[in-house]
Amino acid sequence: MYKKSKKRRKIIIILIVIFCSFFVLFYSLSSNRKLTLVESFFKDTAAIIMKGVMLPFTSLNANKDSDLTESYVIQKNLNVHLEEEIEQLRDVLDLNQTLTGYDVVNATVITRNRGYWYQTLTIDKGKKDGLKKNMVAITKNGLIGKIQKVTNYSSEIKLITANDVNNKVSVSIATTTGETTAILSGYDKDSNLVLISGVDSRVNIKEGDVVTTSGLGGMFPRGIYIGEVKTIKNDKYGLSKTLGVETSQNFNNIHYVTVLKEEEK
């Protein structure tokens, strides 16, 4: 009887710990505030566990001079569904060669909450790797977002597809008559287009015009590719335009990202 009671108490304690862990995790996901020590502990623990589980399939080779061909072939033979992830890994390694003006950190996406699918994702690198809040995250297809929370072993990235009033990006639109600046201010799930607002109605914008980061405000470096203008709508007063921009990045399918740490001196 005593053994059964003791076993029951252990099960209850475990269930309480699990419940508290999930509560802390989901609460932190729904807020932009600074993480508490308890939240950081749980997120780091989850990141370490997820990284360990995914290591055989998603490990990034830090040695750029090593030949990864055999690794790719082995992974393809193990699981054909990893082919797309392997291609993204190749793209990350190629991207490193073009970002000669920056210190970069390659990271793997380890968790993504379905309730916040277009809002955030979590990567397996954090303070131990030199990452800090507001650092820029990209892929070979362009800008995807910036870091909003950091723990020792993981970081949460706020995506540019997040519909958040605090998630504004200053952009530059290259037109036939020059450049004009505006604000990336949201995302339309139905059309899969990011939205650019505050464009002067007098500016001649055409479909296909290229949108990049403007560098204004100091948050994002200038010239990071975002996409091309797909739709153009005038507001009801005829004072400004809202643009729908098609990105090259499939935001439903992100496995690897590159974080820009700082510009080399």
Structure summarized in a few sentences:
Helix content is about 30%, strand content about 35%. The chain is an alpha+beta fold.
What's the layout of helices and strands?
Layout: H1 2-29, H2 37-58, H3 69-78, H4 83-98, E1 102-111, E2 120-123, E3 136-139, E4 142-150, E5 155-159, E6 169-175, E7 178-188, E8 193-200, E9 210-213, E10 225-234, E11 240-246, E12 256-263
Antiparallel strand pairs: 1-2, 1-12, 2-5, 3-4, 3-12, 4-5, 6-7, 6-9, 7-8, 8-11, 9-10, 10-11
How does this model look, in words?
With 265 residues, the protein is of the alpha+beta class. The chain contains four helices and twelve strands, in the order ααααββββββββββββ. It folds into two domains: 8-163 and 251-263, Beta Barrel (Thrombin, subunit H), CATH 2.40.10; 169-246, Rod shape-determining protein MreC, domain 2 (Thrombin, subunit H), CATH 2.40.10. The protein has helices spanning 2-29, 37-58, 69-78, 83-98, and strands at 102-111, 120-123, 136-139, 142-150, 155-159, 169-175, 178-188, 193-200, 210-213, 225-234, 240-246, 256-263. A six-stranded antiparallel beta barrel has the order 1-2-5-4-3-12. Strand 6 and strand 7 form a beta hairpin. The protein starts with a helix and ends with a strand. Residues 59-82 have low confidence and may be disordered.
